[in-house]
Amino acid sequence: MPVRLPIIKPGNKLGEIIVTALRKQAPHLKRSDLVAVASKVVSICENRIVRLDHVPLSQSSKRIARRWRMDERLAALVQIEADRIVGGVRGFLLTEKNGILTANAGIDLKNSPPRTATLWPRDSDASAKRLLEILDREFKVKVGVLIVDSRVTPLRLGTIGLALGTSGFLPVCDERGKKDLYGREVQVTETNLADDLAACAHFLMGETDQRIGVVVLRNTRVRFGSSYDSRRAKLSVERCLIARNLLPIRNRRFSYS
Fold this sequence. Notes:
Elements: E1 2-4, H1 14-25, E2 34-38, H2 39-45, E3 49-51, H3 59-68, H4 72-81, E4 84-89, E5 92-97, E6 100-103, E7 116-118, H5 124-139, E8 144-152, E9 159-169, E10 172-174, E11 190-192, H6 193-205, E12 212-217, E13 224-229, H7 241-244
Parallel strand pairs: 2-8
Antiparallel strand pairs: 1-12, 2-12, 3-7, 4-5, 5-6, 8-9, 9-13, 10-11
């Protein structure tokens, strides 16, 4: 169920805006609903907006900008925000940020005021938990919350959904030990329910001027619990098929010359 929001401004109270919108457009939250919120909405409310003209430049950020044909201030901001820079293509850097491989450390210019950039929430799980507590109090039902951003997938065109932060439900379903159609025991498969559901929400939210900042997801098969967050869905570099093969450059400085 898509929920349309007003234009969000820095410093707006996230909980109040979402509760008001839900009461008008989806007034009957049910037990075990999931409330998906666009990360941009969360970031703007949390004042995670940076004026590009205020970002300090360095010689290394200028080299990055020349190498990948990027705006110098954006390149400098990515360098500040990223945990590490892996590589890039024209206009974008592949980075690691908060244990996630993402473009430009999650920094986005789209739907951010002119000459500004919007950063990821500082702690998306904490943001999801705070919103969950407000929804529990206001609607008197146990629900779950996920903070949704978009991402790209290797060798696939276009963006899909990413559960940047979650609270109140187990983000992964462990399929190991179950039987397949031919009676074979499943050995390694775990389903990332949070990202699957984020993709559903992302489909309705859109990427331009739709203003669908919230999506209510119903009849999901997730397990609810107050102690669960997105850390359950993260994988170490050493165990990741893609990131592990980027590991040889993990401990040396990337060359931008």
